[in-house]
Amino acid sequence: AKRAGGGRHLRYTADLDAQATVRARAGADLRTALEGGQFHLVYQPIVELPEGRIVSVEALVRWTHPERGFVSPAEFVPIAEETGLIVELGEWILRQACAQAVTWFAEYGAAAPQRISVNVSARQLAEPGFAGLVVAVLSETGLRPEQLVVELTETAVFDGGQALRTVEALHRRGVRIALDDFGTGHSSLTLLQTVPVDVLKVDKSFVDKVTMAGRHAVIATALIQVSDGLGLQAVAEGVETAEQADELYRLGYRLAQGYHFGKPVPQPVFVPDAAYSARP
Ligand code: C2E
Ligand code: CA
Ligand code: CA
Ligand code: CA
Hints:
This protein has helices at residues 2-35, 73-83, 86-108, 122-125, 130-141, 154-157, 160-173, 188-194, 204-208, 215-229, 242-251, and strands spanning 39-48, 53-65, 69-71, 115-119, 148-152, 176-182, 199-202, 233-236, 255-257. By secondary structure, it is α/β, with parallel strands linked by helices.
């Protein structure tokens, strides 16, 4: 029995080695990508319901690999987190997004989005210098703290005391804090008792079936009530149809994001006093 166990253990180790090799190669690829300028950002509108006026945009990272072409962030962001490269990549994303937002204010004036949202991973938030980095980037680019929204997931905020202290420091400075994929974690409501939050991004899974009577609609209703009750802003994520937008509005949602209003694009065009141009 001992032998068989040993055999299994050996094979298991070999598998882990293979995985480690794949990860190491992916990590090296990501570093080359960052140094070689293979990343760029796209921006997706966050709109006010019901008219669809753009109030904000979310920056999302894209990687064009020289051989593989488009690689989804759902694939490479977790690898960047594991290898630690997300700290450098995330700094580049933050700087790029803030600088871009400032150029929009100059170019579009009142038609520019009021805010820019940037995704920040657990690993970045756990860095003791993160709040200082944000402050430095704001002063370099000239973006005001209230114009920046930092999107965090619950796992990020629970990553020990440092993460929470960083969130508190940013919030004191006036940076807005959003909880991403809200409602999908194990402790979404618990977090609201301790973490200074401004925005709840209600996960797409609740939005998908909001037009059908059933559990998802009930939860979507409960979440907007929690948000309103706490004086927070709620953004419905992943809105794909006019029916969903109408139903969300009826439930009390005033902010939404999704393909129905606009896909993420590298160079959005903002039209004064008009709904997002992609809207039919
Ligand atoms: P997320 O932060 O929840 O971002 C929303 C995702 O939903 C984006 O996918 C967006 O393109 C997609 N989406 C928006 N509207 C719709 C819709 O109506 N229908 C559908 N099916 N999808 C919609 P994306 O850009 O592929 O990003 C996936 C995830 O990768 C993000 O989820 C986020 O967790 C991570 N990510 C993306 N960019 C960054 C970044 O700059 N930094 C970090 N740390 N993570 C990022
Ligand atoms: Ca997000
Ligand atoms: Ca989300
Ligand atoms: Ca997500």
